[in-house]
Amino acid sequence: MTRVSLNVVSSPVRPDSPDRLTLPCPCPCRSNLQPACPLVGLSHDVFTRFGSTPTPPITLRADPVYKRLGLTPSVATHADLDDLVAFNLAYARHDTAGVATTLSQMLSGMDELAIKDYMRGYLRHLSLPDGMSFEDIWPGVYAMFSKPGGPDLSGLEKGVDDNTTRLMARHLTERFLDNPQGDLLLLRDQAGQVVAVEGVNQFQMTHEQLSIGNAEGIHPKAALLSSLVVAPGFQGQGIGTALKKSVLDWAHRAKGYRYAFSATAAGNASDHINFTHLGYRPLTEETVFSDMPVFTPAVNRQLLANYNKGTMRLGWTDMTQLAL
Predict the structure, then answer these.
(1) Integer distance in angstroms from the first to the last C-alpha of the chain?
(2) Does position 249 have pLDDT exceeding 90, yes or no?
(3) In the Cβ-directed half-sphere of 322, how many Cα atoms lie within 13 Å?
(4) Is the pLDDT of residue 143 over 60?
(5) Which of 36, 75, 115, 123 is most deeply buried (CB count within 10 A of its CB)?
(6) What phi-psi label fits residue 216: left (phi over 0), alpha (psi between -120 and 50 degrees) or beta?
């Protein structure tokens, strides 16, 4: 955790006091967009000097790829939410087959009851007509997810309704924007359009827990990288690798994580980047972390059962050993 070098007081300070010094919050907590600093629990601008100097804000890692392509990286805030929802849904419409394959791999091996529990949590913010409940819509939801070959998402090509938009917004908000342990990094082009995103949050035992952003992670040093999306017109130019490096760097310096985990489909772009360029190795039952004893063979075995669905494989890397 970043240490704040200022003396902080919770009592009001007169605006004209010579001891008053209004500063940008010296912590990586989205530049005053939260009412209080999550690291010290007080108002962002109640910092007084007494001869101290603030810790410089943590900046995002620069990358030659960004300069070459005219891209600007940033940590997403609530102001970016509408653009993020539109970007993710546009990508899903473009690659419905890929999204369906990923979903079917995630849910592979789960029986109807397990899928129902997962979807109940994910869809808990669904706006239903008066008198309807999740139990009423469940048969249709299960029919979609149990189709041979994976979920039928062809409806995305015909437009997105308010419920889909609302669910995507809630998912991004809970998992990243309102989650003090998570962040979403995005890249915008010179026209201001979002062209790539990648997220980091606490590593959890199951995919079901990922839909609840504030669920307790396995260990404070263990992060999960996920949700890499690069717009079709920008793929194949090194953006995915550059953004993953930026997220790893941010996760370590701003969030205090040391180890990054990621579940990727063998052979896809994220999988290739992780295991070829970022030092990932497969998690096994025998994997041991000297500073994270919670990862026992029994826990590793359960993680593999939860994440290694279909062609998915769970890997990890030590961010302190990477040249970022």
Answers:
(1) 19
(2) yes
(3) 25
(4) yes
(5) 75
(6) beta
Which residue in the block uniquely carries the two structure tokens 């949700």? 227
pTM metric for this prediction:
0.70
